[in-house]
## 1
Amino acid sequence: MSQTISAILDSQTSLVQAAAEALPHQFSQCTHALGHIRQAVYLCLTCAVPRGICAACSIACHTDHEQLELFPKRAFRCDCPTAALAHLCALHRTPEPENTRNAYGQNFRGAFCRCGRAYDAARERETMIQCLTCEDWFHESCLSLRERPLSRASTPEAGVPAQEVDDAASEASSNDLPPPLIRADNYDALICAACVRSIPVVRRYAGTPGALMVVRDVPGGPWSVIGREAESGANVEVETVEARKGLDTGVGEKRARSPTKGESDAPNAKRARVSPEASSSPACLAPPVNSLAQQIFDKSLSKMDGAATSSGEEDVCGEGDVFLTEGFRDRWCQCSSCLLSFETYPCLLEEEETYEPPEDPDSGLSLEELGMRALLRLPRERALDGIRAFNQMRDELMSHLRPFAQEGKEVTESDIRAFFEERMAAARGGVGESS
Ligand SMILES: [Zn+2]
Ligand SMILES: [Zn+2]
Ligand SMILES: [Zn+2]
Ligand SMILES: [Zn+2]
Ligand SMILES: [Zn+2]
Ligand SMILES: [Zn+2]
């Protein structure tokens, strides 16, 4: 079991595998065995497009490959151990048949947003937002939240090293842009126009309080926002009645979940007050439709009917996206007809669980686990650089272990652990422990 590290290093085996053999602990697992789950998915441009691999495989099996993180995708099963990838999976050794149930949207070909642009972490100046239902990513400018930054469109700063486009710099450059029409902390979820068009119950809510839309009166005119809750008072659909009667003290307090003992649960209580006669099959409490929003969808739907009905042509007018504000899942009407329409889209009713690599506090940490945690700790917008960071860490570990190789010494777990402890201490000293 114990072998000299020199033999391993000499044989071109990646250090990831070398460390795995030196450490008697459980190796990070490919998620293939877990089946179709919502998880962070990586696109390996070197191996196969359109396919996706799990986070563990992105590190253990495709370290030196060109990759793109696609972030969470639901119902996705890792393709790494399957026949779809010629590259052998280092974590899941049994060859598996191709996954037939995975959906490979345009992200799996490296295209994003309704504009279909490629993503380049080093050059992208815009924040991108993920659609809750289709899980594609959209530029703020394509959502009509901002003007498109000019520099990116005209002259992409070719050859700028990734490290120079750091957080501070990208922060500064987005400060040059006008503020977005809807700030990120003012909504909870985006549903892109194409998804809104295809989900009637969401279309019905578009532009009503808490389902913001960016619209304009005339083509080329200024954009404005409809559906702000402040415009008509918070929670207008149930509380205007109560407010007028002065029945409830919590007017305007959306989350006033007063634990009044006599009453059952709040939603039922609300419903009962508004339509007391219909307790068995409650009437639909969806807010009155916003006619401007409906016009927009009618127009684009009829335009699409006229054109080829294939899903290929996406309108780029930037209208029809819906930004749902906090608590939107609690605000949907619970009548049987609305609920039935929502059932096809569980993510609209309940926040989905996203798989995270298991923590294993009892056993020592494997190199993969340490690497994964380092990746998870990176700020979101830098995560696409994570592979690069991991490669750098691997190189440093390599030089840390080289003396062992030269002396023909055995590498122990504590040697590897010492390396990481040093690194962690250095990182902490640099950031937190200044005082
Ligand atoms: Zn995998
Ligand atoms: Zn690969
Ligand atoms: Zn793999
Ligand atoms: Zn775009
Ligand atoms: Zn969508
Ligand atoms: Zn309803």
## 2
Amino acid sequence: MNAPLNLSPRQLLQQRLQDAQTATPHVTVNPQSAHIGALIGGVDLRQPLTAAEVNTIRSALLQWKVVFFREQHLSHEQHVAFSSQFGELTIGHPVFGHVDGHPELYSIAKYRRANSYGSEPERRPWTGWHTDVTAAVNPPAGSILRGVTIPPYGGDTQWTNLVAAYEALSEQLKAFLNTLRGEHRFSPPAGANPTAEYLELIQQNTLVSQHPLITLHPETGEKILFISPGFLKSISGLHTRESRVLLELLWEHAVRSEFTVRFKWEPGSIAFWDNRSTAHVAPQDIFDLEFDRQLYRSTLVGTVPVGADGRTSISVQGNPVLAAHGAAF
Ligand SMILES: [Fe+2]
């Protein structure tokens, strides 16, 4: 038998998934684009999974960065039970709270507090491309989003693979980015007109962290262009204009269409993404439609990122995002 010598991280992930699938031939994994997204079938998420099924789903997640399921009509309790098989769950949201009676779940409604501007048409959200909660020193490892009320058209979510984005950069730029760190914080974008309630919430729960621009994936060893556009406000050590222009370049690069996948929701759809190596964008078109849209999210407790240069992230303000059962609320 030949040892898998000199395999790249991607080849190791492919090998791991192949081995996992051998043990679970009833579970299907169908890629949805060249670099990101796979549709998983053959499992009933209302039931406890076998260890082999958990391994196949985790292996598919590590390779494809976001995995999708259809026709999984879970209750809140089943959503929490499914998620818990992949790690400890955080409180619903460190700033915006949780679903009453379900501390692990965050409600993603069409008009939610995280987006609150107040009156129409200012209720339009400002949420663009982002990685969840990167203002925390330990952003969630993964997020599990469940669709309940879904418009007949519109409201698709897109994800992008930040490993593929990193790998497509020039070697010269990679080397420069390896030396840099950025400041991530919760704050409304320039020009927003947030409500008093929103401002009070983020002032009471201010989260600011410094993360490396290039992080190492703690499970796969892959290098990641860790540049959550919604939260990353500046690059430390650069002049304001240098920082702004470089971030614009990186954000534009990171969401090139070939690194992305677009998912059309149905009631009972679930998207489970690796929050360490992806960014996603909340759909804006639902605000041009009268349909309602309601999803629920759980998130897995994450570790403090480590940069490609070996330095870890630093908390500037606020607390790490801990497990729901150890949280104050
Ligand atoms: Fe998000």
